[in-house]
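thought: fold this chain, then report.
action: predict
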Amino acid sequence: MPKGYKPSKESIRKMVETRMKDGSYKHTQEQKEKIKKGLSNPEVKKRMSEAQNRLWSKQKHRKKMSEAQKKAWSNPELRKKQSEAHKGQIGWNKGKKDLQVAWNKGKSPSEESRRKMSETKKRLYSEGKLISPMKGKHPSEKTLKKQRETWMKILSNPEIREKIVERNRQHTLRMFESGKFPTKENTKPEREIKKELLKRGYKEVEDFIHQFKFMDKFMCDFCFPKHKLIIEVDGDFWHANPKKYPEDSFLHPHQIKGKGRDKSKNAYINKVDNGAWTLLRFWESDIQKNVVECVDIIERALKE
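observation:
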């Protein structure tokens, strides 16, 4: 065959059919060794890699390959032949567990790596080089339902739920220490109390004040000025609920600091106007359990 000669598509098809019939398409052991030796050459590897990149960089070629593959697999006879040919064969990775394990399994990126990845992503998004695949898209109701069901299934395991809570807590503490944590005002338990008070006919500003600065000293969650009643809503973690954190348990520095502030606040409120002010404290878990009962206690204190 002269140099530079390119056979036609018809000729290639006939050659492939002939080789498939007589079995000459299979490489001999000598040919296999030659191929293996050639592939071990770094220059050959480099040329093959460059050629492959050039080939796959062409969108038309990828499209043609995809269409040809789909067309071929639409033939039931071909699928049947392929299935029979692979029957009884052992997969190349069967029993080789070490090949199936991801290189980064069990490894967590360092803080520095996370920071660099985050900065790179932000830069690419700002430059328009990286666009989120979900931009402008909203999940369907079916997808949302599946996500909710999956999360409920995951959270039903108490060990996993505790791990998630602890991870979120550590993240919050890191943000708090770095100064990025938002002001802890109008929390969910506070909103629950406020919602129940409004439901019972109490009016904000007229009857009670949310986020009241007591004697220009410190902020209180709720205050009924006419009745001289102060309401404090305490988070279980930040104020170290004794039901969850007994006296002998290890406390975080923020919890110790929070307990100290609470003692100072209690002492100050009880001394003002010869003890005319009343202070009620409610734990976050108690509000979540029964907010109606908590507001009943507030109403009894108002009547007294």
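thought: worth noting. The chain has a mean pLDDT of 82.
final: tokens above.
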